[in-house]
Specification:
Layout lengths: L17 E3 L1 H7 L3 H7 L3 H6 L8 E5 L6 E5 H8 L14 H11 L7 H8 L3 H8 L8 E3 L4
């Protein structure tokens, strides 16, 4: 039996790690896949135009060689589209830029300080944006283990 994820009741700081909690996002936003599709590069927008339901693919973790089932749309976003130079621009809204930064980083946990370094924004503004009562695109603190 797996342990339940524990979330801290302590107020997040600029050193609190966040990530996209895809499970939470899927449960709370029926249009989550539509948003992911809108983040695709033009090449993959065309390829995934008729992409409806989830399609899982086998992915091999390069560090552990463990085979995992992953969502194909998330995978192509993280491994290809997020690497395109126009993925995050100066015109990208802050919440969207934060979301896309997590995609570009393979959804590895990042603190507000780390996000600020990458996005050239204030860590405190980023923290206020992602730690409020409203959860944007599944961005939540990493659960305590």
């Amino acid at each position: 039996m797996s342990k339940p994820k524990l979330f801290s009741l302590i107020k997040p700081t600029v050193e609190t790690p966040f990530h996209i909690d895809f499970s939470w996002w899927q449960e709370h936003d029926q249009a989550w896949r539509v948003h992911l599709q809108s983040c695709l590069c033009p090449e993959h927008q065309e390829m995934y135009a008729d992409f409806g339901d989830e399609q899982e693919i086998d992915w091999i973790d390069p560090e552990t060689a463990e085979v995992q089932k992953v969502d194909g749309l998330q995978h192509i976003l993280i491994t290809h589209c997020s690497k395109e130079e126009y993925f995050i621009t100066k015109q990208t809204s802050l919440t969207e830029a934060i979301f896309r930064m997590f995609l570009a980083n393979g959804n590895q946990p990042m603190t507000s300080n780390e996000l600020a370094d990458n996005l050239n924004k204030s860590p405190n503004i980023i923290l206020r944006t992602i730690s409020g009562s409203r959860v944007y695109k599944g961005i939540r603190p990493v659960p305590l283990t």
